[in-house]
Amino acid sequence: MRIEITPRAKDALTGFCGRVGMTQVAAMSRMVDWFSEQDEVVQAAIMGLYPTDIRADIARLILEKMAGSK
């Protein structure tokens, strides 16, 4: 699988991996695993699929749901 990232994201990923001693492949694999385990509302929020004017409401609803499930 290939991904496309901005130079800024690439630099941040390189820095992160250097700090924690992890390969970029391992880091990206963990991120994809984590993302795939999220429910569809969280996935859509992460992908920026909600209109800007309701993003705060979506974030609040996600946090309330997370707090209630503990």
Can you walk me through this structure?
The chain is mainly alpha-helical and 70 residues long. It has two domains: 1-37, no CATH class; 39-70. It is built from four helices and no strands. The chain is extended, with a radius of gyration of 15 Å.
Mean pLDDT: 94
Structural class: mainly alpha
Domain tally: 2
- Written as H for each helix and E for each strand, in order along the chain, the element string is HHHH
Q: Note the gap between the termini.
A: 35 Å
Work out the number of β strands. 0
| Major sheet details | none
Instruction: Give unreliable regions as ranges.
Output: none
Strand % is under 5%
Overall outline: extended
- Annotation field: number of helices: 4
User: Helix proportion of residues, in percent?
Assistant: over 70%
Radius of gyration of CA atoms, rounded to a whole number: 15 Å
Give a brief outline of the structure.
The protein has 70 residues and is mainly alpha-helical.
